[in-house]
Automatic annotation (TrEMBL):
<dbReference type="GO" id="GO:0006096">
    <property type="term" value="P:glycolytic process"/>
</dbReference>
<keyword id="KW-0963">Cytoplasm</keyword>
<comment type="pathway">
    <text>Carbohydrate degradation; glycolysis; D-glyceraldehyde 3-phosphate from glycerone phosphate: step 1/1.</text>
</comment>
<dbReference type="GO" id="GO:0005829">
    <property type="term" value="C:cytosol"/>
</dbReference>
<dbReference type="GO" id="GO:0019563">
    <property type="term" value="P:glycerol catabolic process"/>
</dbReference>
<comment type="function">
    <text>Involved in the gluconeogenesis. Catalyzes stereospecifically the conversion of dihydroxyacetone phosphate (DHAP) to D-glyceraldehyde-3-phosphate (G3P).</text>
</comment>
<feature type="active site" description="Electrophile">
    <location>
        <position position="91"/>
    </location>
</feature>
<dbReference type="GO" id="GO:0046166">
    <property type="term" value="P:glyceraldehyde-3-phosphate biosynthetic process"/>
</dbReference>
<dbReference type="InterPro" id="IPR013785">
    <property type="entry name" value="Aldolase_TIM"/>
</dbReference>
<dbReference type="InterPro" id="IPR000652">
    <property type="entry name" value="Triosephosphate_isomerase"/>
</dbReference>
<feature type="binding site">
    <location>
        <position position="169"/>
    </location>
    <ligand>
        <name>substrate</name>
    </ligand>
</feature>
<feature type="binding site">
    <location>
        <position position="209"/>
    </location>
    <ligand>
        <name>substrate</name>
    </ligand>
</feature>
<feature type="binding site">
    <location>
        <begin position="5"/>
        <end position="7"/>
    </location>
    <ligand>
        <name>substrate</name>
    </ligand>
</feature>
<dbReference type="InterPro" id="IPR020861">
    <property type="entry name" value="Triosephosphate_isomerase_AS"/>
</dbReference>
<comment type="similarity">
    <text>Belongs to the triosephosphate isomerase family.</text>
</comment>
<dbReference type="GO" id="GO:0006094">
    <property type="term" value="P:gluconeogenesis"/>
</dbReference>
<comment type="pathway">
    <text>Carbohydrate biosynthesis; gluconeogenesis.</text>
</comment>
Length: 249
């Protein structure tokens, strides 16, 4: 699977042009392709991908409550009614700028699953943690807090995105070995808690400076099931090249 996270980029007309160009370049992707678009574009982009077996749309956030007086927020029910299939939750930018922690993210994941949305749960360590060699402790803790209350059926609808914070938007991609090591660790954690069938089948994406020139090698690692792409998803040529770098299932 390849998911693009546009973050706060593209106007609605730019977004539509980008999706049209990607779909024209890769009309039949060999993998699931998801556009994570700004809230104002959800309906418009959903219209463009509607009916396509491999293209889908993700919201970049969602509120944990069912409905109510939460000005500026989007609910799970609204996303589902608009035809949206995925929601990105726990991105490091929301952890940093909106103060989200794994307890809150756990509430959001539960709400999303209750409505049939598929959460793309983001986790990952900061640079000082990596330098101290504590990345598995920190990511393990994030996953435990955010996902351990789920049952095997629920977790099987979750996509995990490992995004080392030091690699996001910096051009400093994790090495293939670093990515593989963490993905294997995450898969083992999920297998231990939910059983090996769930662990073997869960999709674990790598995110952090994925580009056309490193995607193929990263995606060739046995536990890397694709990517969550920021900057390189904003340009049709580079996103199309990354989609085409996914190894066949
Ligand atoms: O959600 C995507 C990540 O934050 C990666 O962003 P990037 O590809 O620009 O490093």
């Amino acid at each position: 699977m390849v998911a693009g996270n546009w973050k706060m980029n593209t106007t609605p007309s730019e977004g539509k042009a980008l999706v049209r160009a990607v779909m024209e370049k890769v009309p039949n992707p060999a993998t699931r392709v998801v556009f994570g678009v700004p809230a104002i574009q959800l309906l418009g982009i959903q219209e463009l991908v509607k009916g396509h077996p491999n293209y889908a749309v993700a919201a970049q956030n969602m509120h944990q409550e069912e409905s109510g007086a939460y000005t500026g927020e989007l609910s799970a029910a609204m996303l589902v009614d608009a035809g949206i299939e995925y929601v990105i939750l726990g991105h490091s930018e929301r952890r940093d700028y909106a103060g989200e922690d794994d307890d809150l993210i756990n509430l959001k994941i539960n709400r999303a699953l209750k409505h049939g949305l598929k959460p793309i749960y983001c986790c990952g360590e900061k640079l000082d943690i990596r330098q101290a060699g504590n990345q598995e402790i920190v990511v393990g803790h994030q996953i435990e807090q955010a996902l351990s209350s789920l049952d095997p059926e629920q977790i099987s609808r979750v996509v995990i995105a490992y995004e080392p914070v030091w690699a996001i938007g910096t051009g400093m991609t994790a090495s293939n070995e670093q990515a593989q090591q963490m993905h294997a660790y995450i898969r083992k954690m999920i297998s231990n808690q939910f059983g090996s069938e769930v662990g073997n089948n869960i999709t674990i994406l790598y995110g952090g400076s994925v580009k056309p020139n490193n995607a193929r090698e990263l995606f060739a690692e046995p536990d890397v099931d694709g990517g969550l792409v920021g900057g390189a998803s904003l340009e049709a040529d580079s996103f199309a090249a990354i989609i085409e770098a996914v190894r066949p299932a």
